[in-house]
Design a protein that fits this description.
Length: about 800
């Protein structure tokens, strides 16, 4: 076996860590003694206080450390885990010569599960050792400080009491340090053993992978007789022997798993009860609301909930398979068979009958696939069943493509289903060729992959119906709708959730298919190599993984920041009395802080070197100096608007000839909606550097001015009283400050009065002004007060002179 680079590096890292952990305390003490000059003695006046603080800190550290009893329990637990692993190691080495790939795969799953447990113990022990090392460092530092202090005051005889207290403190520090050192030694030895076992497991996993690949290659290279040249004698049909051998091997796996995971059945039972209770609850709820439900997934969920027991069994088993990757293959096969029954019950509620019969056929074939595990490829029953499975698959797929899809209307989805159907049809024909010509391994893998993929697709479809329906129902619930974030973006959130879940379901279906074709791990490794390969541009080195991590973190930071901004502004701050515009400013500051933190985290997670970042910032600074002055000015102005708040959302402002209401304030520009309905994007720099009239900055009050003219025959005192009566009786006109009616002037054709009054409804000031003018006009008309219009006597001299000349000519 060739040791790969990753495993070699890990082995070196383990041994280096153990070596450093063992040698570092002594090395640190030597360094501290040699650098004792750094530990200055404590001043005489501060000794009593410092002594008390040192003892208190030491006691606090000792109280926080792991106790000897806990260390002993941890050591016993660790020894128990390692004993199980070592027994498993001995068993695997003894039976490594097994020719069954299934046996080797079961051992591989078992080792991978044990590897996870051992690595968790290694990580836990490492954390404890770090805590102990820090404690030892503290006690050593304090001992050196107090030793230096004691040497300084030894010559002062009258400080004998203080000297004794220092000696007591030093003894306590020594004693505590010794206890911690003993604990550290026990933990180091335990960690050493765990690390060695972890390395052994790494070797054994590598050996098993090599053995599995070797067995698979042997099977692929093996050429069995074609179906026509088989030996059909009774000697080649070993039903009893094959079944007994299979049953004995798999029963051993079942007993070992039950002994190892006895509590799993309790968890599955509890999960089933929880799901069943939830489904009964939603079933009763939908009975009342069924007529008002129009969402596709909720309507389909109503059909599923007519069978709550089947739905509960389906999800409980599916969750168990997903969260337990180390399930033995026989347990996984049995759970998959148990899944088929509730799946078919649910599919009866969801699918057309013609399509349902196709699913029935694939499910029956999948259950019968266990025959391929019982018999060897040389067995006649194995070959006959493989041939039957290939023919049955071809018939079912052909029926699905040319009969069912032709009559069902699936629009865009129909093309996808038809494409998948043709792929499966090709796989079935290749499987048929393998079954006939003797390439049984390829035929078996393709046909089993096909069957499992079809049933898995139906299972994923049913699961998505249940999950999407429940999540959409929760989003529509009354207690969720009370939150403005969900109420205002209900349709958008549901659309996003459905897309994400459907994408994950499609991806999981693809993974299942590739795993069944035994190409998933090779594809995954190749993709991983591609993304981890180091690339370089000039002096900057990076990988595709770092780029994706960088983009993903920034995307998530922007998404999270927007969500938090909306929740703060519309759900949290809306319920707290705050100054106008302050909720928006705080939420925007939080948003930009999260984005900034996300950028820094993305740079750190992507492994971008600081030198490269410095060059980037330098280039950005040069760009600002030459061509981005306006952009940078607008960015800074946006921050000023957020902190100073001279303009706030909802304000009516006037910038130059532009008048409108502020709709949003961004980091670069603000959105102003004019009274004509146009939305104008105004750079923030203009709102800071130019004169801005803000009509509603501190309040919504607005003074209104109206000019009224009456004829010279009118009594001005009566006009005053009538106008004041109109202004004082309206509720939308403020009485403080009181409305004012001024006799403005005696005009050319009228007596002019100037009306000044205030309103708190700035948005309605034009309407109020119009209504006031209407009322004044009606009131003046009722009291026979004339509203004059301009009158003038026009004297045109040029025309008169021309008329005189014409008259004289006529006389002549």
């Amino acid at each position: 076996m060739i040791l790969n680079k990753a495993l070699f590096k890990r082995i070196i890292a383990y041994f280096a860590f153990i070596l450093v952990a063992i040698l570092s305390p002594a090395q640190e003490i030597n360094d501290l003694i040699s650098d004792s000059v750094k530990y200055q003695p404590i001043q005489l006046s501060e000794i009593p206080i410092e002594l008390a603080e040192t003892i208190a800190q030491g006691k606090e550290i000792l109280d926080d450390l792991i106790s000897n009893e806990e260390i002993e329990k941890l050591k016993q637990k660790n020894d128990s885990i390692l004993n199980i692993v070592e027994k498993s190691e001995a068993l695997i080495k003894k039976e490594m010569s097994q020719t069954s790939i299934r046996f080797l795969q079961n051992r591989l799953l078992q080792l991978q599960s044990q590897k996870i447990i051992v690595d968790a113990e290694v990580e836990k022990l490492t954390g404890i050792i770090k805590d102990l090392s820090r404690s030892m460092q503290f006690f050593n530092d304090e001992k050196i400080i107090w030793t230096n202090t004691k040497e300084k005051i030894l010559e002062l005889d009258y400080l004998e009491t203080i000297t004794k207290r220092i000696d007591q403190t030093i003894n306590l520090l020594d004693s505590a340090n010794s206890n911690v050192a003993e604990q550290a030694e026990i933990m180091l030895l335990t960690l050493d053993r765990s690390s060695q076992v972890s390395i052994k497991i790494e070797f054994m996993i590598a050996d098993l992978n090599d053995a599995i690949k070797s067995q698979e290659m042997k099977l692929l290279e093996s050429k069995y007789p074609n179906i026509f040249n088989l030996n059909y004698s009774s000697e080649n049909i070993k039903i009893d022997y094959s079944f007994a051998k299979y049953a004995k091997s798999e029963w051993t796996e079942i007993k070992a798993f039950i002994a190892r995971k006895a509590d799993l059945f309790v968890i599955i039972g509890f999960l089933f009860i929880v799901l069943l209770t939830m489904f009964f609850y939603y079933q009763k709820r939908f009975e009342k609301e069924a007529k008002s439900i129009h969402n596709y997934y909720q309507k389909r969920l109503i059909l599923v909930l007519t069978k709550p027991v089947s739905a509960s069994v389906l999800l409980a088993i599916l969750i168990t398979i997903l969260i337990l990757p180390d399930l033995p293959l026989i347990i996984r096969d049995l759970l998959s068979i148990f899944l088929v029954i509730p799946l078919l019950v649910i599919m009866r509620q969801l699918l057309d009958k013609k399509l349902l019969y196709t699913i029935y056929g694939f499910a029956i074939i999948m259950i019968l696939n266990i025959l391929l595990e019982i018999f060897s490829p040389e067995n006649i029953i194995y070959r006959i069943y493989l041939l039957f499975m290939a023919i049955a698959n071809i018939i079912l797929i052909r029926h699905f493509i040319f009969r069912i899809l032709k009559n069902l209307h699936y629009e865009k989805k129909g093309l996808i289903l038809k494409s998948i159907g043709y792929v499966f049809l090709v796989m079935a024909f290749i499987g048929l060729y393998g079954a006939i010509m003797g390439n049984v391994v390829i035929g078996k893998d393709l046909l089993i992959a096909l069957n499992i993929a079809v049933v898995a697709g139906a299972l994923i479809y049913a699961s998505l119906i249940i999950l999407n329906g429940i999540i959409i129902t929760i989003i529509d619930a009354k207690y969720v709708s009370r939150i403005n974030f969900f109420r205002n973006r209900n349709a958008y959130i549901k659309k996003k959730v459905v897309r994400i879940l459907n994408f994950l379901g499609g991806f999981y279906f693809l993974v299942i298919l590739l795993k069944q074709l035994n190409v998933w791990f090779s594809i995954r490794d190749r993709v991983a190599d591609l993304f981890t390969e180091e690339l370089s541009i000039l002096d900057i080195e990076f990988s595709l993984t770092s780029v994706l991590v960088f983009i993903l973190i920034i995307y998530l930071s922007v998404l999270i920041s927007k969500t938090i901004q909306i929740i703060l502004e519309y759900d949290v701050f809306s319920k707290i009395p705050m100054d106008k515009g302050l909720p928006h400013s705080i939420s925007m500051i939080v948003k930009y802080s999260i984005i900034t933190g996300g950028i820094l985290l993305a740079v750190s997670a992507a492994g971008m070197p600081l030198t490269s970042l410095t060059v980037l910032l330098g280039a950005f600074g040069v760009g600002i100096g030459f061509g981005l002055q306006n952009i940078f000015n607008n960015l800074v102005s946006g921050l000023i608007l957020l902190f100073e708040r001279p303009v706030q959302i909802g304000d009516t402002i006037e910038v130059g000839t532009l008048i409108g209401t502020v709709r949003s304030i961004g980091i670069r520009a603000s959105n102003i909606k004019t009274f004509d309905g146009a939305e104008v994007i105004v750079p923030n720099g203009q709102l800071i550097s130019n004169e801005v009239i803000n009509w509603t900055l501190s309040d919504q009050q607005r003074r209104i001015e109206v000019i009224v003219g009456v004829s010279y025959d009118s009594d001005p005192h009566q006009v005053y009283k009538l106008i004041m009566n109109v202004l004082t009786q309206r509720k939308d006109i403020m009485q403080d400050p009181a409305p004012t009616v001024l006799f403005n002037e005696m005009g050319e054709s009228s007596l002019d009065f100037r009306l000044l009054f205030w309103t708190t409804s700035f948005s309605k000031w034009l309407q109020i002004r119009s209504e006031v003018i209407f009322e004044i006009f009606d009131l003046l008309k009722e009291n026979n007060i004339e509203i004059p219009f301009p009158q003038r006597d026009v004297h045109i001299r040029s025309i008169e002179e021309q008329l005189k000349i014409d008259n004289s000519k006529n006389k002549d």
